[in-house]
Amino acid sequence: MKDIEILKLDVRGLNHPEPLERSVQLMKQLHDTNCMHLHIHRYPQPLLMIAKRHGFRFEALENSKGEWHILFTKNQNLDLKAILQELGDV
Q1: Which domains are seen in the chain, by residue range?
Q2: N or C, which terminus of the chain has less Cβ within 10 Å?
Q3: 1 pLDDT exceeds 80?
């Protein structure tokens, strides 16, 4: 993970459609040497469908507070589960 830049986006508590808009905007900056860590208050099904349609890989985990941590990347070799575990309480 030391060579991968993690772009963080915390959209907890924001009203629709702001979390989706901010997430899509940051996704446009993703390439093979970075990933996006999204912290959100609910499971973002529409965003995940958009990500999949555009060829992004993602891994989602719900933490003990009911919040979601989701990593998005274009890098096919990243172990997203391992990165989420390194990030802490997810």
Answers
A1: 5-86 (3.30.110.40)
A2: N
A3: no
Closest CA to 73 of 33, 41, 22: 33
Q: What is the spatial distance between Cα 63 and Cα 18, in angstroms, rounded to a whole number?
A: 22
Task: Report the distance separating Cα 65 and Cα 28, nearest Å.
Answer: 29
Burial class (CB in 10 A: 0-12, 13-18, 19+), 85: exposed
Contact indicator for 35, 57 with CB cutoff of 8 Å: no
| C-alpha–C-alpha distance, residues 81 and 53, integer Å | 21
Q: Is the pTM of this model over 0.85?
A: yes
